Here is the input.
Amino acid sequence: MEGVAAAAKDAGVALCYNRVGSMFTWFFTAGPVTDWESASKSDTGAFGRFFRAMLDTGVYLPPSQYEAAFLGAAHTEQDVQQTIVAAKQAFAAVKG
Here is the structure.
């Protein structure tokens, strides 16, 4: 989560994340997101562009920012690093 958030910051994309254990989600807003009202201010169009760009690189995320993603025992450090690299590229699509 931190690696993708840092990539967003470097790209000038407003992004925050919420996490509990290995369950997380990113919101395309400066944040924080604490309830429906703050979540509904997120840029869902940016999330859609990010999702499609990540999918194009082989990284499958939940198709809605209102769904949780999970980091599991099957994920390797290489998977995590590949996701961060893909996110750096995907943020170009977000800024469109």
Observations:
- The chain has a mean pLDDT of 94.
- The longest helix spans residues 77-95.
